């Protein structure tokens, strides 16, 4: 276990190595997340509709 002063110094040196994203990168990433979430929700809605239609068709044949 390192001494607390040494630990704090090592932590500060590691934090100094961090490269933070720019505002443009954050905005672009956020927009991409929303686009992917929308595409995923549309995909699963279509799959749900297809499965529901298939099941209703099967139940109407056998029911």
Description:
- With 63 residues, the chain is mainly α.
- The protein has a domain of 43 residues.
- Helices cover 84% and strands 0% of the residues.
- The protein contains two helices and no strands.
- The N and C termini lie far apart (71 Å).
Helix count? 2
Helix percentage range = over 70%
Strand content: under 5%
SSE order: HH
Instruction: Please tell me how large the radius of gyration is.
Output: 26 Å
| Low-confidence runs | none
Mean pLDDT level: 94
Q: Give me the oligomer status.
A: single chain
Characteristic terms for this protein:
mainly alpha; 84% helix; 63 residues
In a few lines, what is going on in this structure?
By secondary structure, this protein is an all-alpha fold.
Reconstruct the topology from this structure.
Elements: H1 4-16, H2 23-62
